[in-house]
Amino acid sequence: MSSVEPLTSFASSGRAALEEVERQAERFLAISPLLHEILDGVPDPVMVLNVSRQIIFANRALRTLLGGDNAGYRGLRPGEALGCSHPAESLAGCGTTDFCSVCGASLAILASQLSGQPARQECRIKRRADREALDLRVSATPLTWGSELYTLFVLSDISHEKRRQALERIFFHDVLNTATALRSAAGMLGRELPEPQHEVVQILAGLVGRLIDEIQTQRQLTEAESGELCVNAAQIDVVGLLGDLARSFENHELSLGRRLVVKSSGELTTFVSDYVLVRRVLYNMLKNAFEASQPQDAITLSARASGDGLTFSVHNPEVMPRDVQLQLFQRSFSTKGSGRGLGTYSMRLLAERYLAGRVTFTSTPVAGTTFRAWFPSHLSGGAL
User: Which of 147, 263, 322, 376 is 20 to 30 Å from 101 by CA-CA measure?
Assistant: First the structure.
């Protein structure tokens, strides 16, 4: 370390002397040619840092991103190598400015060094000279090599992911506003038009309501996959929930020619969970059952106490093909064919990741197909 350390606003400013960095780099390079080939084969940029957060090795992906060779980055810190604009704000460089206290890269490296455990963060690096900003997901993994501590620092470019998320938020916001305005306009028409035309207005309002529901479904799925979905637990009346679901299919085109039978054992009248998410899971179960059934079939929706929770079941008399059964709940698979909905995938995603529940199914030629969703009697906690 240098004898005089510059002032810092966040992490330690001390650095190993260049001679020490060269020694560490040569020692690393001498470990095994295979290790270097492995790191060079990793598609994401990888750095090996010493305890002072200085680079002693840069893999091929990083060298391709930045240009130059390994020797050109030795002794630099990550932000300095990536061209971050903030290190210049301090004589001590990367990790020592006010901004560094909220930088995901600095936070991940320090967390891994202090805890001895891997750490992950997201960070946005504003680069110098009007170069494009970097949106990164970074991971820092501590490595002990003899008596010395190092950090394996991996960067993943998530710029496209972030742009997609921003566009999705704008899309859902604008389309929902438009659909809500259409629903309001339909309501105004219903008040202004003569009674013989009210049926047409009701059909229009119903279609707009369905459109809003589909948009909200897709937004919910997007938030669930990104970990941004909020869970709001409250007491749910079982009979009221079953009735709400039944009414949703009273005039649905999928229910034409089919019957919905609702059963409740009455053993458990209420439970605590997120009403919107539970309803979404059960609605998808019912929708799938109606789509899979034949005219004149009866679909059965039931609820019963089960262990320390409640099991909802949706049964239809048809059997699923074996190849469909094997692929259920996969993100890229739909029971309705390529390019269709993600109902079964979203059932398991919402129930198991957010509601502490379970979704299962059975399907045989004799018994037909039954989907079951179990939820605990009391859900605690919020969004993941």
Answer: 147
Angle, in degrees to the nearest 10, between helices 198-226 and 275-292: 110
pLDDT tens-digit profile of 201-227? 777 777 777 677 777 777 777 777 777
Q: Could you give the CA distance from residue 165 to residue 23 in angstroms, rounded to a whole number?
A: 44
**Interatomic CA distance for residues 355 and 52, integer angstroms:** 43
Contacts of 74 (CB under 8 A, 6+ apart): 18, 21, 22, 25, 54, 55, 56
Write down the pLDDT at residue 9. Answer: 86
Question: What is residue 4's predicted lDDT score, i.e. its pLDDT?
Answer: 60
Question: By the 8 A CB rule, do 73 and 54 touch?
Answer: no
Q: What are phi and psi of 80, to 5 degrees?
A: -70, -40
Query: Which is nearest to 375 in space by CA: 227, 216, 241, 223?
Result: 241
> Can you give the residue range of the structural domain that contains 305?
234-376
Domains: count for the chain = 3
Q: Are 90 and 98 in contact (CB under 8 A)?
A: no
What pLDDT score was predicted for residue 241?
95
97 domain-assigned? yes
pLDDT-flagged residues of the chain (< 70):
1-5, 129-131, 165-166, 210, 266, 331-343, 381-384
Class of residue 331 by CB neighbours under 10 A (exposed 0-12, middle 13-18, buried 19+)? exposed
Cα separation of 243 and 260, whole Å? 11
Q: Which helix (H) or strand (E) holds 185?
A: helix 159-192
Q: Where residue 146 sits, what CATH number does that domain have?
A: 3.30.450.20
Whether residues 151 and 174 share a domain: the answer is no
Tell me, what's the pLDDT at 324?
A: 84
Co-location of 288 and 354 in the same domain: yes
pLDDT digits (tens, 9 = 90+) for 52-83: 999 999 999 999 988 877 778 899 999 999 98
User: Does residue 359 lie in a domain region?
Assistant: yes
Are 299 and 259 contacting, i.e. CB atoms less than 8 angstroms apart? yes
The whole-number pLDDT of residue 330 equals: 76
263 pairs with which residues across the strands? 302
Residue 7 domain flag: no
3-state secondary structure at position 142 = strand
